[in-house]
Amino acid sequence: MFNPVLVKRILTLIAAIAIVVFVYINFSVFLPILLALLTAMIFEPFVKMLKKHLKSEKRILPVTIVFTLFLTVGGYLLYLTLTRLVTMIYMRSLEIPHYAREIQIFIDDFIITFNQTIAEIPQGNQIVRELERQSEALFDKAVSITSDILATSTSVLTGIPNMLFVLLIYVITLFLFSLDLPRLLNLFFNLFKMETASKLRFVFQRMSKVFLGYWKAQFILSVGVFIVTYVSLLFISPESALLMSVLIWLVDIIPLYVGPALILVPWGILAMILGSTSTGLQLMILAVVLLLVRRIIEPKVLGDSIGLAALPTVLSMYFGYVFFGVLGLILGPFVYIAIRSAKEAGLFELNLTGDLPNQSIRK
Questions:
Q1: Residue 353: its pLDDT value, please?
Q2: What sign has the CA pseudo-torsion 19, 24, 30, 31?
């Protein structure tokens, strides 16, 4: 028997799955828009607070204030970081002739010593030929690596206009999303029946608190990383301690799996190449320590901030990483809480927690 309601639901489900698959395949294209929407949702509590404090019926003024403050702080931190980084690179580049001279002296001494040693060995000629063959292969490999680096650098430079365009789209979309967020949410809720819409509103309210809790946890962790990094760098490299600590803090507050290691490891390798082996090793050790400490503390801090016990937080991050990679580390807890919130709202009935204590979301 033909059931139009069932057919409509099946078609709606198929359309929703098709949209999700399409967005997943073209995720890089939708990423600026999704980030703008996410940022607008994060800023929404501040917009509401300002709207209430200013007693303004329209959103244009509080949205403009929050948006301008975000651009000002973000632009100033980016300018400060880039200028300090360029200055440090320039000062380091002035030391290259000194390091090159020391390397040349070392190579000359090594060649003299090597020739004296080879002259005393019966099979010296064969050793020299083998070394020449290996050096040619090493030279070819070095040329290949250099070509790859130059190609990557060229790709990055040619991609700067595209990055600026994407950044402009992100900024414009963020402002428009912030301005029309309540209306957009109402349009979304109006697609459903009144009972379902009320349940979805409950889920969205819970998720907005989770978003704030997540970024609160990230900010707390990043501040701790900044303090530890700054104190450590005062002993390792005091002349660039503040600049590099700020740069590491900016990288760390972005939810990347590697975090501070993204800056400390290349810095340590560069220091060892330039002859500061002790400094390079200390930077490597600092990167490992920060990575381990953050990974150990993060589930507890994140769980307390978003309202989950440490165990489900760790498990959701683990399974998210297994199925979706690094992005799953971020999305795992949100997916778990979304399912729990939908269950509490009555969208479906599943016993996900059983009778385990301390697993409920703290309201």
A1: 43
A2: positive
